[in-house]
Structure formats: structure tokens, C-alpha cells
Amino acid sequence: MGWIKTRNKWANAHSYYWIDLFRIALGVFLIVKGTDFMSNEVRFQEVMLPFEDWPGSWLILHYVIGAHFIGGFFLIFGLFTRLSVGILIPVMIGAVLANLLGPINTLETTLALVTFVACVYFFINGPGKHSVDYYLKMQQ
């Protein structure tokens, strides 16, 4: 627990608006990607092709869409940031693997890698000073 408090103090002392804007943009991007997965079944089947022989592969569909929507919503507001990003990190690992194991699309692979790195950053540093998490913490 001490490590998290130390990271929170550092992140709050080094909180910049552009990082908050990046967190919000990441949340919006995740919601848009979740909507794309939900509305474009052909694209999702193309992404799922390397994993179709895995047991429970269609359960992944529901997990991915839910994680994108809920994680994106929470990232926009900076609420339960570490929890939501912790749920998103396996999805981002799967996105990177799907792009590397399947037909390689450079743009999709780059987006998956950038999103994965951003999720790891927010998992380590938290939402920052301009978030609902920080506001709720200060109300105690």
C-alpha cells in the first residue's frame, strides 16, 4: 500500500492538464473501439480468427466490449482508474497479440501498442490530480 501512496503523491505533484486530456482521449477512444467491435461483427471475427480454437473464445467478445465501455467511461472521469485499467490491460495484450498473430495491420498494431502503454502508465501513476478519484479522496 505504501508504493501506491508514493506513486499517488508523485503523480499528483506532477499532474498536468495534457496528461488528463490524454486520459480523457484514451477513454473516448476505448468507447469508440468498443462501439466498433459491437457494430462490426465481420471485423471482430477477423480479429478473433487467431483465437477461434481457444475454449470460450466467444466469451472474450463480451469481456472485450464490456471492458472497453466501462473502462473508457471510468477513464474519462478518472474514477476507479487503476481498477478499470487493470481490467483493460489483458484486453490490450490480446489486441497486441491479435495484431501480431493475425494479418498485420500497421495502424491497428500501433494503436494497440500505444493504448497498452497508456494503460500501463495510468495503472502505475493513477488518474492524476484532476479526476473524480482525487476529488473523492480530498473529501474524506
Shape: elongated
Return Rg in Å: 16 Å
Mean pLDDT: 83
Number of strands: 0
Query: Counting H and I runs of at least 4 residues, what is the number of helices?
Result: 7
- Parts with pLDDT < 50 across at least 5 consecutive residues: none
Largest sheet: none
Sequence of secondary-structure elements: HHHHHHH
State the helicity in percent bands: over 70%
- The total domain count is 1
Strand content: under 5%
- Structural category is mainly alpha
Oligomerization state: single chain
N-to-C CA distance? 18 Å
Description:
The protein is mainly α and 140 residues long. It has one domain. It contains 7 helices and no strands. α2 packs antiparallel against α4, α4 (57-77) crosses α5 (81-101) and α5 runs antiparallel to α6. The chain is elongated, with a radius of gyration of 16 Å.
Task: Describe the structure concisely for a colleague.
The protein has 140 residues and is mainly α. The chain has helices at 2-13, 17-39, 41-48, 57-77, 81-101, 106-125, 132-138. The relative contact order is 0.16.
